[in-house]
Amino acid sequence: MRKFNIRKVLDGLTAGSSSASQQQPQQHPPGTREPEIQETLQSEHFQLCKTVRHGFPYQPSALAFDPVQKILAVGTQTGALRLFGRPGVECYCQHESGAAVIQLQFLINEGALVSALADDTLHLWNLRQKRPAILHSLKFCRERVTFCHLPFQSKWLYVGTERGNIHIVNVESFTLSGYVIMWNKAIELSSKSHPGPVVHISDNPMDEGKLLIGFESGTVVLWDLKSKKADYRYTYDEAIHSVAWHHEGKQFICSHSDGTLTIWNVRSSAKPVQTITPHGKQLKDGKKPEPCKPILKVEFKTTRSGEPFIILSGGLSYDTVGRRPCLTVMHGKSTAVLEMDYSIVDFLTLCETPYPNDFQEPYAVVVLLEKDLVLIDLAQNGYPIFENPYPLSIHESPVTCCEYFADCPVDLIPALYSVGARQKRQGYSKKEWPINGGNWGLGTQSYPEIIITGHADGSVKFWDASAVTLQVLYKLKTSKVFEKSRNKDDRPNTDIVDEDPYAIQIISWCPESRMLCIAGVSAHVIIYRFSKQEVITEVIPMLEVRLLYEINDVESPEGEQAPPLPTPVGGANPQPIPPQSHPSTSSSSSDGLRDNVPCLKVKNSPLKQSPGYQTELVIQLVWVGGEPPQQITSLAVNSSYGLVVFGNCNGIAMVDYLQKAVLLNLGTIELYGSNDPYRREPRSPRKSRQPSGAGLCDISEGTAVPEDRCKSPTSDIKDNSFSRSRSSSVTSIDKESREAISALHFCETFTRKADSSPSPCLWVGTTLGTVLVIALNLPPGGEQRLLQPVIVSPSGTILRLKGAILRMAFLDATGCLVPPAYESWREHNVPEEKDEKEKLKKRRPVSVSPSSSQEISENQYAVICSEKQAKVISLPTQNCAYKQNITETSFVLRGDVVAMSNSICLACFCANGHIMTFSLPSLRPLLDVYYLPLTNMRIARTFCFTNNGQALYLVSPTEIQRLTYSQETCENLQEMLGELFTPVETPEAPNRGFFKGLFGGGAQSLDREELFGESSSGKASRSLAQHIPGPGGIEGVKGAASGVVGELARARLALDERGQKLGDLEERTAAMLSSADAFSKHAHEMMLKYKDKKWYQF
């Protein structure tokens, strides 16, 4: 008969109830039941939605500009669409298919945009709503789309294909016209070869009835739309990349694959009037210049007073190896070659007029580069660039980590801005940024938000992220304290990583005291103090630490290392650990192995430190007997105690940064003392050293191969082992013995069960799910703090959870968060007299805990979150009050205890893509939403939650995605977002003049409706393209109701944004607009009725 195990049944019931919506508290003996805390957060307070995306559009592929609305659009290879107006007005949209955007065309001053994608779809976007939506889509089934052209104030879009044909789309109904220009009709019948795909379409600026078609092979055709035949054919024996008109319509210019430009007179098709090779070497014998690289694009812009501008990209000669990509500006006899930092994707010339038949008056060129957006001022000598106001420099050096702080002290942003303003570059254009369309949203969020990004080159950037904007405040270069190695032979010690030796791994920041601490990839820690004064540091304070991992019966090779201490569990007083520091003795051990050497060399010359963050202390881990130092896995700083602590897979080190002394230097196992729950076999670290992994990348299993240790933290390792916890595979004694420090938290709480009052301590979490508590005995404040040692001793308190410890926090008896103590910021670099007065004041730790005013005997709660579960421990009793198994099959990547709606909660992001929140202290599940799968380590490395329901992560190497899990923020988001479309009068058309009108020299108009409409051209083949209604919905219908229409149609069709009642005249229209179905039925009738008024859009 099988034995019945009642304990297993109870365990099963507990596990089953953990997934229920109401989390049950742990059972306690009578008399020790936890007091009931009133929790205010409910599920209805939570809702998940993306808010804004910041940064440079990743892998850009297309560019467009609305010269009236002053809005810029950028499309990307992943189907994203980014729209930019005035600084602070930005918008991100995404095509569902994810296909690359090959071209964008604004419906100028209409609040609409057409996108052409690599999957042969066209989409019409309505920009009249804060979150643009697709109104219509058209999928070409039999032909590939290569080029689109929409004439100004026209509703007929020309679409060129790979087969060389041109189709015409009505942008009102997004249907094909029966009018088609076939390639074999366009080229000469005698031509035996196919002319190639259509690479250009444009109408003659002076005659809408003449269409210029450029084929890739080098043939250009001027097509008469009315007579449906070619007027002229221009042939050149080099492939065409782009074509541009002179505004008078008598000449056009072509750019070719051999680096030449050809200028043609419209009426003489035999040969070009002029052939220019802008970068070709002119040969003496009158021979053709040597061929150059292709000119990918050319623009031809005229001015009233002076020579026209010819602007081109590419065309450099082949012998300019290693030369950077260039934009060439030819103006009269001068040619300026402007070098770019990255390859040019596209460029556009910004002109004063939207009319193609007027003098263009170019004033700027916007250049879309692979990793930057540059705007060149054409009106100033030397063509200076405009200072870019958008936050597009996030990726200036690859982001390796980031932190997010909402509800910071109000004086922080002005302080950072004032020191950052001095770092601004000079030599920019004096003019205002010309892309200034749209309006700002009404920001209802009034609290300051700061994002800090750490980068591969060792820089740290502070960003103002208040409301939905982002602006860089200040940049700190941490590499300034180190000697730069000039060549590979000069860097014998930096081989812990192949590249980026200064890359930032962890940032610990105290906003109240402004103390900043960073841990870098070369096992270095730097502590910074904020100052508004410039100082010159004669000698950079430095400590070197031997953090050794060795379990041997023999004596440790490190003489100064304190022996493992027996950790008393009862009331006995533990033995204090004496302070220790390690002299820099760069030496080799007897067997020639590298020993006592740090990975980086600190500068020994005086260092000028500008206002802002100034180095207080540099700490470096050193090589030990041929073993490189292992990368730092956790870090914490406390300004009130004057301590910094960090750990890795070897152990933990604590430093007093005021006295510049090492207080604690223990292997992880030594922290346990005699309470070690694991049987660990003694071994030397040299025999089978476990590689540290690349730290920033190797976030998953700990299954790194030795080569991984040398990978740059900027590389994205795609790992298939995200689905299971990294700790779940830690089974071997070898891996257990490499238990790393994964979480550190300074606090004032109960360190032992017998404690009657809270005291300063450090809580340490490890990758094996252990929490250990270290007691801190701090000397009095003032001068005594600098003279007496800080006594550090393990308390004997050990707690256990399943999975690596990620986060710890503390609550008082009422359930309010107890933040770590801090010292408020004050200027340290002040004259001596003032300083003496300051020192006389005994500065005690500032405790902002609500419990400070309460009885000492009141209990506290420790909130501990691991990769697998969360526990709330009652202190000082150390009973588990509440427990929640967060995930069984996956693991938590990030857990944060955050303030929200005058309460607090635990927010978690799992590797399986779920975002979850739990109430505190009872750990009731409040939100569980599948958000995004963990596709790469960049997301794992950068995801973070902060207060007031805010979170962010790096969605691509160049962009930050912000999201909210607060229902209130989701509701207010619409108000906070900026508006892209603003009602602007279209400029008046150019005056034709008396003589031009008399002799017919002005612009010729064309009744396109008569040519392309169904009545004259018939219906297009149904199999050619499929119409797909967009998800724009009724909001899109309302926004699009006023398109290219006359005043009468506008009066009848406009529906006020706020839904106000229209007058009697518009009642019928309002009723029609209130229902999308009714509107779609009548749209065609209305269009026909008002066709002469150029009625637009569906």
From TrEMBL:
InterPro entries: Lethal2_giant, Lgl_C_dom, LLGL2, V_SNARE_CC, WD40/YVTN_repeat-like_dom_sf, WD40_repeat_dom_sf, WD40_rpt
Principal subcellular localization: membrane
Any GO molecular function: syntaxin binding
Chain spans, region Disordered: 15-34, 557-595, 674-730, 828-853
Listed GO biological process terms: exocytosis; Golgi to plasma membrane transport; protein transport
The keyword Membrane is assigned to this record: yes
Domain of life: Eukaryota
First and last residues of every WD repeat: 233-274
Stretches with biased composition (Basic and acidic residues): 706-721, 828-839
Protein localization: Cell membrane; Cytoplasm
Protein family per UniProt: Belongs to the WD repeat L(2)GL family.
Protein name in UniProt: Syntaxin-binding protein 5
Species the sequence originates in: Equus asinus
Lineage of source species: Eukaryota, Metazoa, Chordata, Craniata, Vertebrata
